[in-house]
Amino acid sequence: MTLSDTRGITEAAKQARNVLTSIHAGLIVSCQAPEGSPLRHPVHMAAMAQAAEMAGAVGIRANGPEFVRAIRAVTDLPIIGIDKRSDIDPVAYITPHFESVVELVRAGADIIAIDGTSRPRTGTGAPSANALLRQIRSEFGNLPVMADVSNVEEGMMADESGFDLVATTLSGYTGNGQPGTGPDIELVARLVKEQSRPVIAEGRFATPEQVVAAYGVGAHSVVVGTAITDTLAIARRFAEAVARKAQALRS
User: Fold this and answer.
1) N or C: which end of the chain has fewer CB within 10 A?
2) Rounded CA separation 197/163 (Å)
């Protein structure tokens, strides 16, 4: 290894640390729109990211290379890139393949989030979380990689495997029942206590008070999505409440 190679590796490690530091104790806004939403277009998600930055967000979470690329063109904030693959069954589909990682990095993602659950990949052609992490390390070195998990055991496995961050994104979404109505603050607290990686609190955060609660138990950062950027879901919630009230008045 030459001196130049050593300097390059050192600089890459420094940049990775800077990214993790820059999102500490701040709000990450997930700029995504569901299938069928008229906002599901790169230009709209880029505008959402700009609005989030203007409001004080320290990072963006975005789904798919096309959207990451559009957001990267309008902001220098760190981007957590994912590639949701709803065509894969069973549903271990958050950035399941190395090809998705390559495209996200090319598009400008600073952190890659992958499915870190223990759900089977059999029949999907997707490697295990550990195998995918090894591929990423081999190709991209110090690129920060985040494991989206659903419970403490998965978080501890992600820690032992060498993931840089552990996120509570999939809490409540890997079983047969319906997820809770609020964020899993208890899981955030347990992950902070029982493993060594920075914990990103994510999933069903709807109020500033919930975000503050996550920081109160030691979260490194908090991701908020639907409550800020899913206009369709927000409007639908209000419309359904009005419809229920109207029905009650007619009864």
Assistant:
1) C
2) 8
DSSP assignment letter at 191: H
Q: CA-to-CA distance for 166 and 146, rounded, in angstroms?
A: 6
pTM for the structure as a whole:
0.92
| Nearby residues of 176 by Cβ (< 8 Å), 6 or more positions away | none
Please say whether the beta carbons of 228 and 54 come within 8 A.
no
- 7-16, 79-88, 197-206, 220-229: least confident range: 7-16
- CATH number for position 222: 3.20.20.70
Range of the domain at 153: 3-250
pLDDT over threshold 90, residue 166: yes
Token pair 């030459």: residue: 2
End-to-end CA distance of the chain: 79
Pull the structure tokens for residue 20. Answer: 């993790």
Dig out the tokens for 77 from the structure: 């904030």
